[in-house]
Design goal:
Elements lengths: L13 H4 L2 H19 L2
């Protein structure tokens, strides 16, 4: 999913990071970038 944003990393995994907000932001950013790419 993060490849749509241009980032070369995986979505932050809250199982390991304990940070659900970071995971949410990564998913939101990825979804928005994917939708923008599909609407072109």
């Amino acid at each position: 999913m993060m490849s749509y944003t241009g980032a070369c990393r995986d979505v932050a995994d809250p199982w390991y990071t304990g940070d659900f907000e970071e995971a949410f932001q990564d998913i939101l950013e990825g979804c928005e970038a994917m939708l923008n790419e599909l609407s072109i």
